[in-house]
Amino acid sequence: MSVAHSSVRPVTAGTECAYCGSDRSPHDPVFAEEATDGPDDERESVGEFRNYACLHEWIEAAALVYGTACERSPDG
Length: 76
What we know:
alpha+beta
């Protein structure tokens, strides 16, 4: 997943935050995208958030942090 700040994308008035449902336009929103299986490194939106706090809570609520890191055993 990649994250883009609002300076990279235009903010549309009246668009709701994917996590809290608040209007994103008076804030400095964050956009999350995932790579598709298509050609040319295409990406699709997975959410538009009011701020990084909403993005963080959305990631936690969707349990996206579990099983995403490398694991190291003390035994090698």
